[in-house]
Amino acid sequence: VLVMSPINYVTHQLTNATQKFCYKYELCPFHNATQHEQTSRWNAYSGILGVWQGWDISNCTFMAMLLKEGDSCGSRNREVRVLFICGESNRLLRVAEPETCSYTMEFSSPLVCHAHALLVYPTLRESLRNEWDQLEQALYDSVINKQVTPPPIPPLSPTNPTLPSTSGLSLLL
């Protein structure tokens, strides 16, 4: 179990020809990310950049934490993508804003230094690993394909007046 301090700071300065901004960022993994402008302006910005939404997973590997639905920013909400880097301690290394209202944070941790640390499969509980194994075998045997298609819905009739439940559909490959 990873227990982390709810606050990890990194100070970031953004400078242009007329103004100098200094921000303090806080990342609370699996919770949220915030930004606090460090100025003496009367209306300094302090707000939520994003709230934990889940993982960006590619090729069965956790690629980044996704924090979305942050404070309003024009016509959209702020969002953060947190990338993991092997490091000696749990700390926020860098923050960038590659496009307006969309941030990237680099977070170092010794927990991601192992070559297989970010693989999805080992983190699954046994029942989900068994389901994963069955799906992988069905994919290998060409029983299913990577395109998820719901089963056909039988037509309504006097003997079948309701539609079947689709709550059991949870195939994600």
UniProtKB/TrEMBL annotation:
InterPro entries: Gtb1-like, Man6P_isomerase_rcpt-bd_dom_sf, MRH_dom, PRKCSH. Residues 1-115 form the MRH domain. Coiled coil: none annotated. The keyword Signal applies. It comes from Eptatretus burgeri (Inshore hagfish). GO terms for cellular component: Golgi apparatus. Residues 150-173 are annotated as: Disordered. Gene3D superfamilies: Mannose-6-phosphate receptor binding domain. Pfam families: PRKCSH_1. The lineage of its organism: Eukaryota, Metazoa, Chordata, Craniata, Vertebrata. Keywords: Disulfide bond, Signal. The keyword Signal applies. SUPFAM superfamilies: Mannose 6-phosphate receptor domain (SSF50911). This is N-acetylglucosamine-1-phosphate transferase subunit gamma. Residues 159-173 have a biased composition (Low complexity).
